[in-house]
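Suppose you are handed only these lines of text.
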Amino acid sequence: MANTSPPQLHIAPTPDEVLSQLADFIVALATSRLATQDRFTVALSGGSSPKKLYTLLASPAYRTRVRWEQVVFFFGDERYVPPTDAESNYRLAHDTLLGPLGIAPAQVVAVDTSLPPAAAAQDYSRQIAQFFGAAPPRLDLVLLGLGEDAHTASLFPGTSVLQATAAGAEAVFLEAKQVYRITLTAPLLNQADTVAFLVYGPEKAAAVQQVLAQPKGVAPLPAQLIAPASGRLHWFLDEAAAARLPAGGR
Ligand code: 6PG
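From them, the structure of the protein bound to 6-phosphogluconic acid can be written out as follows.
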């Protein structure tokens, strides 16, 4: 049963304040979950926005506040490039978070982009299913960003993956960019316990308004597909990104 509770908005004046709020949120959630379970699973987002978040989490102010050895890292999506490529989401996470925290390879479930795109997606789905065993894949936390066209992960407007009904990973070919991406599908993302968007900057204000303030209609925008069954959907925004929401989102 889909949950219809509204998302919780966390709006701060500046990007740095948003990043601190989200970092504190992640620490609190991980601590809470690890009080009753032995692992905390998180799907990392890609792009440029989360780079400062990962650097902050690996900084002296935060690195001791989570039992990182009990955290298992997944990726909401991946660019179809080698893990050493500057475009790689894995490389972003490795350079800013996983490496600095000394995360063991066994704690990372990543896309094998040495395989052909469809096989890479199938292999990623297999790895996820293997990790969760008989239980449906239910990530404790999914971090997401938002593109100016309201895409999230690699759920881009006009791509067939928006209609995916299986909870897993799929390969997406982006005609405009002539590149492949591997992405978790909306059904898998919506099985998560908690989903948190991190969006800041004035260039995102229009997309934020379209996603949060406009009705979904018959063809929801990609980010409007994200509605976790748990109802725990959070948006961490700076005032610039929230500027076009009614009353600035407050
Ligand atoms: C990616 C992300 C993508 C990203 C948005 C926003 O692989 O790029 O998964 O969904 O979150 O494109 O990117 P920026 O943070 O760079 O604006």
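What can we learn from it? The chain has six helices and nine strands. Helices lie at 15-34, 50-57, 89-101, 117-132, 186-189, 205-213.
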